[in-house]
Amino acid sequence: MLFTTAAVAFGLLPLALSHPLEERQNALPPVISAQDESVVQLALYLEHLELSLYSGGFINFTDAEYTAAGFPPGFRENVGVIADHEKTHADTISTILRNAGKTPVPPCTYQFPYTDPVSFVDLANMITSNGIGAYIGSGSLLTDNPELLTAASSILPVEARHDAYLRTGLGASPFPTAFDTAVTPVFAYNIAQMFIVSCPQQLPITILPKLTFVSPAPPPNLQPPVPAGTPLKFTFDPSSFFVKVDPNAPLYIGLVNLVTNVTFIETTSCGSGCVTAPVPKGAAGAAFAVLTTFNGGLNENQLTQFGALTRPAEVVLS
Q: N or C: which terminal CB in the chain sees fewer CB atoms within 10 Å?
């Protein structure tokens, strides 16, 4: 079953905001540049996505279903608390934009490929990892506005706590790596497109051709980590590339993992529009794979700007 949601009936969530936004508007940081606005709008776009996801996880399953799936007592209620946090984030970011005379980007209609509590939590771990990566990756763009950077930084650890709680519910390590992976704004936006059915307004960010991660599935309880050397299989449509690529030219996976490290791995063809690439040694946690013709020499920003043939495919390794 695929769950499709647009605007959520927020009255179904278990908690209400304890401090009305009107009381805090004067304390909210300003948006002082076009770059500030682009970062804040992307943050809101991703918060809308997470709000819809977690609201669905609360509404679509009962306490008994979570318990039967092996989650601890109170898990569903805490999914609702997470949804309430996402609503607070979205409302606050929207107010910051309105205070600056900007129109906040509205929610989209989403489709999430989960069918039961376990697949919901697996998906939530993936989507939240992208959100965490986006906050890390966007921080350097807010250096001219310390107040806004502080506000964004205050959301980041909350998102990480959400993910740690979800992972613990699965029986996985709440902290699988010593570092998280930064995701550039373009890559974070493109990962979100996996779950978009339609949007009343998209952001002015290029949507790259799709790369689909096929296998292997994440290990049960996300442990042990997917071993180094395991083939990762991806599919894509060569006719969708924005540039002409020699069909005989070697292709590489640029795997972004742990801070901004990019490992370039030569692929092996498994047919038209199909490649495999082995997991590199030391890769763990959430990784983001991009198809490219470059065999090295690019950092994540350069891979984003001119090296990527496709959008990233998220790969959960542990």
A: N
